Amino acid sequence: MFxxxxxxxxxxWVAVSFLLFFIIFGSLLWKKFSNFLDNKINDINEExxxxxxxxxxxxxxxxxxxxxLQGLDNEINIIIEEGKLKAQNLYxxxxxxxxKEIMKLEKSAKEKIKYLENEAVIEIQNKISKHSIxxxxxxxxxxxxxxxxxxxxxxxxxxxxxxxxxKNKFIQ
Length: 172
Known about the structure:
- The chain is mainly α and 172 residues long.
- It has helices spanning 10-143, 146-171.
């Protein structure tokens, strides 16, 4: 069996030195390599933990932003509803003011029409009176003689004197 192994063969000595190297320095190399791998695992675990924390923070931030967005949506809806209510109130107030103004204008127009009607009636009555007086004067001038005319004037003067005398007695 020893014949198979040729101690003069350099490959055998390389293998033996390789084995001796690993036996002597293997535990030290294994510890260093194991520490290196453990450090890498710890670094990766820390990065995973940091990423997990960042992911959780992002979720929390997203949740907060969704809540803020929902709050803003609610505020917008409230503002819109308040705006609609204010617009409706303004519309109702404006409509009421317009109706009051229309009623005032109608009342004013009716009063003005009534005033103008009264003025027209008075003007027509005055014209009729003037025309009647002119016609009466013309009729009297054409039909009355000077004697009848003098008699009517004298009778009017006498009646006027009686009326004045009666008023003077009443006043005294």
